[in-house]
Write a structure and sequence with these properties.
The structure is a single chain. The protein is α+β, with helices and mostly antiparallel strands and about 150 residues long. The protein has two domains: about 1-35; about 35-145, OB fold (Dihydrolipoamide Acetyltransferase, E2P) (Beta Barrel). The protein is built from three helices and seven strands. It has helices spanning about 5-35, 40-45, 130-145, and strands at about 35-40, 55-60, 65, 75-80, 85-90, 100-110, 115-120. It has a five-stranded mixed beta barrel.
Length: about 150
C-alpha cells in the first residue's frame, strides 16, 4: 500500500470514529432529556421505575386538592379512573388547573409520592391530550377484561 492510500485510509477511519462518537454523544444527551408518559395505573404497577424522570398524565381527582394557607406547596391526586397517584408541587399552579381537569405533571417518584417539577393543565373543557386519552382508554380496557369471569388482564 502506498503512502497516499494509507493516509486516505487513516482519514476515513478518523472520520468514521468521529461520526460514531458524535452520534453516541447526541443519543446520550437525548436519552437524559426524554420524559415518558405514564398513567397512575402504570406507575402503581412499577412500570415507571423509581428514580427516573417521567410524565404522569390523567385527571385531577375531585376533592383531592389541598394547599396550606400562605404556602405554595400543593397536594392533589391524579387518576386515570382505575388508580390514583398522590402528587406534590411547590410552585405556582397554572391558571387553568382545577379538580376534574386533565393534567400532565413532570417529575420523579419519591417515597410513593410523585414530586412534580412542572404542571401542564388543559386549555379548554373538551380537550384532553391525545397520549393521555389513549393511555387512559387502554387502562380501562385492561381493567374491564380482568373484571370479566375468566378474564385475563394481559
Amino acid at each position: 500500500m502506498n503512502l497516499q492510500r494509507r493516509r486516505r485510509l487513516w482519514l476515513v477511519l478518523a472520520l468514521v470514529l468521529a461520526g460514531g462518537l458524535a452520534t453516541a454523544l447526541v443519543a446520550m444527551a437525548l436519552q437524559r432529556n426524554v420524559a415518558y408518559l405514564y398513567t397512575p395505573s402504570e406507575v402503581l404497577r412499577g412500570e415507571a421505575g423509581t428514580q427516573s424522570r417521567f410524565r404522569l398524565g390523567g385527571m385531577v381527582e375531585k376533592g383531592s386538592f389541598q394547599r396550606a394557607t400562605g404556602s405554595l406547596q400543593a397536594h392533589f391526586r391524579v387518576t386515570d379512573g382505575d388508580a390514583q397517584q398522590r402528587v406534590s408541587y411547590d410552585r405556582i399552579l397554572p391558571d387553568l388547573f382545577r379538580e376534574g381537569q386533565a393534567v400532565i405533571v413532570t417529575g420523579r417518584l419519591q417515597n410513593g409520592v410523585f414530586v412534580a417539577e412542572d404542571v401542564l393543565a388543559k386549555h379548554d373543557e373538551n380537550y384532553m391530550p391525545k397520549e393521555v386519552a389513549d393511555k387512559m382508554g387502554a387502562a380501562h380496557q385492561k381493567h374491564a377484561v380482568a373484571a370479566l369471569p375468566g378474564g385475563d388482564a394481559r
